[in-house]
User: Which sequence fits this backbone?
């Protein structure tokens, strides 16, 4: 298969920019994988949930009504480079605090303010597309937990500025009972009172933190639009994003449609155009992106044509309200985060629906490396297990092979309701789904082996010394060995120390001597994780003495202090490194 350059917007995307895109997406995949890998073995602290105990926030009545206000003709252009300038230690401290709270550059988001221009990322051909004059109107449901107010405000403004008013029945802001110190609701409500039409914007709140799956159902239940449009709470919608989605549902109400998810860089807030791709999954039930081969775009119409997709990423999609209820909305027994997107995708296809990506609809989304919630609860494991048991028939063995520890897990809750839903809807078999929707996963068909090979050519070997010091990058050892998850410290350089000898591979990884399957990884701080050969947080580019990791947008950093921790930070402030050759005695 050809995963090379993707021709985009008429121009050939340059390879680096292109691989960055791919990396950010892979980053997400790996993140999910890690999240569950990391959380799996822990005892799941089952949350006590009262399913129907939601309340509508009475605050909603307070807002002034101003039907007239919609859209803004002077959306400002912002200069991200200027806004990113740190003018002193206070700024840096504030920025660090923002990262801690939200896992993205909150300081920069605040500086960008309530609205900004973003590049129109659609293919040119999209501008020539026409849609029906009369389209169904939509309730836009945005669930959030611990979201930054400026991100939420800018998101709603992007909808107001780039969506025909008559297509929006309402925008629902569902606060899933955020933590008190991260509750965006009061600030957003203040802004709303002054700037948004109260007839269209509604504030709701779940009584308990329900997790995003039940929060979405709560939003749906409290909405009235003919179509439901779900969006994550850190998006900016692009030009004319909604009509292409609604038109498709108008044609066929059993079609569930997703925009292409563009990338808002979590450090720089740069809006990056994503290549046209569809959703898939692997046997661990991790969502993955599938990139069509380059030849697919020889016919330019394929840049704009709706594409069948085996799965959806989960956050951004539109669905006819009645159809949403017909197919049984979500699995109510799923907690916090994860796998509900794969579950609803299986269900859609197997029970008479269709899932499509609509390339002329584009919405930017901030992909975070970590989520500011849910630590200590293995919701991904539990939710995937429920998905496998309800939908995968004999193929659940494949899932267990990838997630063996879940064989033992018994506290996944009651799945009988989902099983009878499957019977009631007379859904097709998983075999049918594989054969007709995702044949690449049929046994014998898989072009990508389940277990990735972890060997790659070593290009060079060196010590990595902090410039102007005698300290070197050193892998943490446990009884003399570097183990998975090891941190990296600065220690006095000494030739011959395996944990200080780094091999630079063809894949641009850094692997310490003696632990050849471990790679320097920027996903969780700076650690050594199993090499996954998928680039992303394990790819290090060297330039003017710095080590840059594109997936995190940061550089390798360390201090001139023995036993201090090496980390990643913004390249503008990161120090330089020297590669000392290995001297063989
Ligand atoms: C992706 C999806 C997300 C969801 C998830 C799997 C996209 C762009 N995002 O992960 O929608 O399908 O995969 O479960 O496809 N939230 C709550 N209550 C909570 C926790 C989170 O309302 O208890 C909100 C959160 O504020 C956000 C949304 O749910 O708006 C999705 O969460 P996320 O952004 O952490 O998920 P993401 O994008 O990593
Ligand atoms: Mn998200």
Assistant:
């Amino acid at each position: 298969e050809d995963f090379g350059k993707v021709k985009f917007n008429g121009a050939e995307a340059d390879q680096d920019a292109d691989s960055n895109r791919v990396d950010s997406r892979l980053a997400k995949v790996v993140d999910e994988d890690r999240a569950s890998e990391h959380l799996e073995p822990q005892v799941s602290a089952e949350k006590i949930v009262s399913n129907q105990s939601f309340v509508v926030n009475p605050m909603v009545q307070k807002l002034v009504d101003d039907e007239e206000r919609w859209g803004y003709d002077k959306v400002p252009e912002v200069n991200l480079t200027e806004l990113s300038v740190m003018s002193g230690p206070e700024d840096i401290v504030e920025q660090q605090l923002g990262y801690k709270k939200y896992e993205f550059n909150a300081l920069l988001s605040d500086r960008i303010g309530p609205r900004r221009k973003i590049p129109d990322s659609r293919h040119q051909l999209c501008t020539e597309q026409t849609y029906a004059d009369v389209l169904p109107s939509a309730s836009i449901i945005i669930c959030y937990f611990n979201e930054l107010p400026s991100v939420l405000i800018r998101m709603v403004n992007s909808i107001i500025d780039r969506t025909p008013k008559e297509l929006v029945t309402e925008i629902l802001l569902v606060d899933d009972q955020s933590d008190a110190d991260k509750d965006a609701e009061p600030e957003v409500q203040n802004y709303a009172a002054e700037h948004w039409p109260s007839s269209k914007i509604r504030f709701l709140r779940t009584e308990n933190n329900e997790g995003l799956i039940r929060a979405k159902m709560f939003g749906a239940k409290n909405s009235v639009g003919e179509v439901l449009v779900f969006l994550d709470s850190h998006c900016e919608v692009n030009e004319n994003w909604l009509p292409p989605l609604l038109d498709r549902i108008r044609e066929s109400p059993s079609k569930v449609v997703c925009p292409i998810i563009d990338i808002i860089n979590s450090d720089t807030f740069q809006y990056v155009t994503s290549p046209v791709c569809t959703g898939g999954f692997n046997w661990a039930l991790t969502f993955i992106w599938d990139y069509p081969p380059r030849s697919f775009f020889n016919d330019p119409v394929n840049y704009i044509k709706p594409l069948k997709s085996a799965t959806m990423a989960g956050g951004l999609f539109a669905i006819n309200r009645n159809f949403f209820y017909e197919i049984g909305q979500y699995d109510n027994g799923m907690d916090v985060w994860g796998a509900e997107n794969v579950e609803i995708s299986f269900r859609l296809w197997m029970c008479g629906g269709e899932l499509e990506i609509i390339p002329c609809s584009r919405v930017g989304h901030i992909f975070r490396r970590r989520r500011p919630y849910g630590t200590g609860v293995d919701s991904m494991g539990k939710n995937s297990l429920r998905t496998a048991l309800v939908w995968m028939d004999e193929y659940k063995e494949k899932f267990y092979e990838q997630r063996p520890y879940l064989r033992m897990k018994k506290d996944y809750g009651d799945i009988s309701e989902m099983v009878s839903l499957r019977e009631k809807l007379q859904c097709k078999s998983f075999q049918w789904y594989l054969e007709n929707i995702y044949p690449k996963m049929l046994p014998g068909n898989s072009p990508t082996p389940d277990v990735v090979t972890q060997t790659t050519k070593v290009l060079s070997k060196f010590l990595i010394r902090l410039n102007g010091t005698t300290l070197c990058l050193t892998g943490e050892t446990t009884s003399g060995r570097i183990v998975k998850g090891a941190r990296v410290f600065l220690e006095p350089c000494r030739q011959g120390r395996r944990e200080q000898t780094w091999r630079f591979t063809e894949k641009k990884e850094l692997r310490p001597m003696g632990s050849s399957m471990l790679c320097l990884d920027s996903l969780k701080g700076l650690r050594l994780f199993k090499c996954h050969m998928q680039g992303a947080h394990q790819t290090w580019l060297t330039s003017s003495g710095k080590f840059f990791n594109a997936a995190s947008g940061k550089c390798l950093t360390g201090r001139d202090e023995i036993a201090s921790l090496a980390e990643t930070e913004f390249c503008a402030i990161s120090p330089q490194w020297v590669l000392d050759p290995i001297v063989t005695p």
Remarks:
- Residues 232, 234, 315, 365 surround manganese (II) ion (ligand 2) (CB under 6 Å).
- Residues 15-39 form the longest helix (25 residues).
- Residues 1-66, 448-453 have pLDDT under 50 and may be disordered.
